Amino acid sequence: MNPIDTILQNFGLVILDGALATELERRGADLNDPLWSARLLLEEPDLIREVHADYFRAGADCAITASYQATFPGFARRGLGHQAASELMRRSVRLACDARDAVWATLDHTRRPHPLVAASIGPYGAFLHDGSEYRGDYTISDADLLAFHRPRMAVLSDAGADLLALETIPSFREAQLLLRLLEEFPQTWAWMSFSARDGQHISDGTPFATCVAEIAQHPQVAAVGVNCTAPGYVAELLRVARDLTTKPLLAYPNSGEIYDPATHAWCGIASVGDYAAEAQKWYAEGASILGGCCRTTPDHIRAIAAWARAAHQGAERV
């Protein structure tokens, strides 16, 4: 059964975690590296586990693993062979599962669902480390793009996660190819989340309506939505999506700051003062899976969880 639906049937809302990489940086990690957060799978796995645990304590119902930028070609640049790279990808899932299990043992199980772990699969542009996960302007062929994604999907679909997070996808073509690959692993669920350039189009310019209409038809897609997108676009994007599918919708935008690929840094200021209040608006527009992406923190997730759990208790009393 779709693991997302299982939670939604009983709780009405799934609370995702927030940023992993930028939260690791906030805690002192140096991620100025093509591997980004995947670098810490090698160097500081305990810090990754700590961040996962803090998100679960804050109220997250799902952790997204540190495998977004973990790829076989990326690890090969570090001199790591297939077996070593596979083990690091599996480690990303174990770290999230270990954090989940440790925190779950301390919680009141009557108020929260058993949390999920989603194994992150980022776009080809994340491997390029040039900002193209926000453009989708690849020149790689379909065959080579399939060959890039296939071995990582094979490992992560068998690593013990509850589902895959196909996230920050900027290209409709890449989304279609990822779903073609997903069919090679028929017991695996995945959500598909796009990066968007405005309230109507994903990053490569394809209308979001086109993406939702096709992607959401796939039987293994557990949910569809947007992430790492400016918060100001989210409500409009959700309005587009909700008329095209009955699949759950998800929204986990960034803080509103802008990523500069030349300096590998975020600039500008956060555009959302009260993230939980914005999340309530996204919920009203149809999103039932809510969280945060780059530059969000456990405090943002704690605020969403406080609202969501209070609303759920109120509904039970009525």
Automatic annotation (TrEMBL):
Cofactor dependency: Zn(2+)
PROSITE patterns for the chain: HCY (PS50970)
GO molecular function: S-adenosylmethionine-homocysteine S-methyltransferase activity; zinc ion binding
GO biological process terms on file: methionine biosynthetic process; methylation; S-methylmethionine cycle
Organism: Oscillochloris trichoides DG-6
Family matches, as Pfam families: S-methyl_trans (PF02574)
Keywords annotated in UniProt: Metal-binding, Methyltransferase, Transferase, Zinc
The Hcy-binding domain, residue ranges: 2-308
PANTHER family: HOMOCYSTEINE S-METHYLTRANSFERASE-LIKE ISOFORM 1, ZGC:172121
Domain of life of the native organism: Bacteria
InterPro entries: BHMT-like, HCY_dom, HCY_dom_sf, Hcy_S-methyltransferase
Residues that bind Zn(2+): 228, 293-294
Protein name: S-methylmethionine:homocysteine methyltransferase
Record text on cofactor binding: Binds 1 zinc ion per subunit.
